[in-house]
Amino acid sequence: MKITLANAEAVLDEVQRDADKLHSRELRRAIENHIEAQRAAIRALRRKMN
Q1: What are the residues whose beta carbons fall under 8 Å from the beta carbon of 29, sequence distance 6 or more?
Q2: In whole angstroms, how large is the CA radius of gyration of the chain?
Q3: How far apart are alpha carbons 11 and 38 in whole angstroms?
Q4: What is the DSSP string of 2-47?
Q5: How far is it, in rounded angstroms, from Cα 32 to Cα 15?
Q6: How many other C-beta atoms lie within 10 A of the C-beta of residue 40?
Q7: What per-residue string of b and e applies to 9-38 under the rule 16 or more CB within 10 Å gives b?
Q8: Model's pTM, two decimal places?
Q9: Measured between alpha carbons, how far is 11 from 25 in angstroms, rounded to an integer?
Q10: Helix (H, G, I), strand (E, B) or coil at 48
Q11: Predicted confidence (pLDDT) per residue in 14-44, tens digit
């Protein structure tokens, strides 16, 4: 499961880089909010696993 969480974090980083290229501020902000929520979920899963 740890490998899967690491892959999820890598994908979120990739999505963040792609979102930074968007012209729409509102869309970038919405994506950033969603990414932060997903990162918080990953942190919570890591805490439960340890």
Answers
A1: none
A2: 12
A3: 11
A4: HHHHHHHHHHHHHHHHHHHT-S-HHHHHHHHHHHHHHHHHHHHHHH
A5: 9
A6: 10
A7: eeebeeeeeebeeeeeeeeeeebeeebeee
A8: 0.83
A9: 21
A10: helix
A11: 999 999 999 999 999 999 999 999 999 999 9
Confidence at residue 50, expressed as pLDDT on a 0 to 100 scale: 82
The residue behind tokens 């439960």 is 48
Question: pLDDT band for position 5 (50/70/90)?
Answer: confident
* pLDDT over 70 (residue 2): no
Tokens of 30: 């919405």
Query: How many Cβ atoms sit within 10 Å of the Cβ of residue 1?
Result: 8
Look at the block and give the residue holding tokens 């990162």.
39
